[in-house]
Amino acid sequence: MTIDAKLAKPELAKLQKEIVLPDIPKQKLQPEVDQKELENLKAARDGYLKTVNSEYQNVDGFNTIIKDKDAGDVPISYTLSAEEKAALKPLVENFNADEYFANRWFGKDGKPNVPQMMKDLFLLENPDKVFQKFGSEGMNKNKAQNLLQESNVDISGKNGGSMRQTEQQLQAAELRKKNEEALWD
Fold it and tell me: Is the Cβ–Cβ distance between 145 and 139 less than 8 Å?
């Protein structure tokens, strides 16, 4: 094999001089962006920023109506302060949905945070349902606490209590049970 290789060297050198490599034009790594397309993108971005600047002050906040059989419909709201609006404005101006949700919904290891995803999506799709539940539950718990304080009932059982205290404890427990049932209705 060694002898054959040495005999083939002059032949290979001759063939190497005769080889002509094809002329392959260099390909551009990034496609050229049309100037008109750049102008359209800039105009769209400018329009977006103009809208954000003119509209961000118009954001009120969150509103819901709590339905209560005693008090009727009770409107509840959370109004964003001027400081809160100003703090959100840069986020909205430079909002990148892919980056925002990737950071919020995926860990550094790439694993999805499914509970966070589901809570966020449910709240986005059902804000009134969530706010009404929080408001109704808060209102009912507040009523129950007020009733307990007004009646001065000790339901802990620490006082050993008289017959009157036991009756009051039973009434308070029944009232609490009714309030909890009303909450879930």
Answer: no
Residue 31 lies in a domain: no
**Which tokens in the block code for residue 20?**
């002509």
Per the structure, the count of domains in the chain is 1
Tell me the two tokens of residue 53: 């600047």
Q: In terms of residue numbers, what domain contains 114?
A: 96-125
Predicted confidence (pLDDT) per residue in 117-162, tens digit:
999 999 999 998 888 888 888 888 887 787 777 776 555 555 554 4
pLDDT for 16: 86
Q: Does residue 116 lie within any of the structural domains?
A: yes
The pLDDT tens digits for 23-63 are 888 776 666 668 888 899 999 999 999 999 999 888 888 88
Token output for 38: 């750049």
The Cα–Cα gap between 67 and 76 comes to: 11
**Contact status, residue 79 vs residue 60, Cβ threshold 8 Å:** yes
Q: What is the model's pTM? A: 0.55
Per the DSSP assignment, residues forming a β-bridge with 62 are: 78
How large is the angle between the packed helices 127-151 and 114-125, nearest 10 degrees? 90
- Identify the residue with better confidence: 33 or 176: 176
Q: Is residue 105 a part of any domain in this protein?
A: yes
How far is it, in rounded angstroms, from Cα 119 to Cα 170? 39
Residue 168 placed within a domain = no
Strand partners, 66: 74
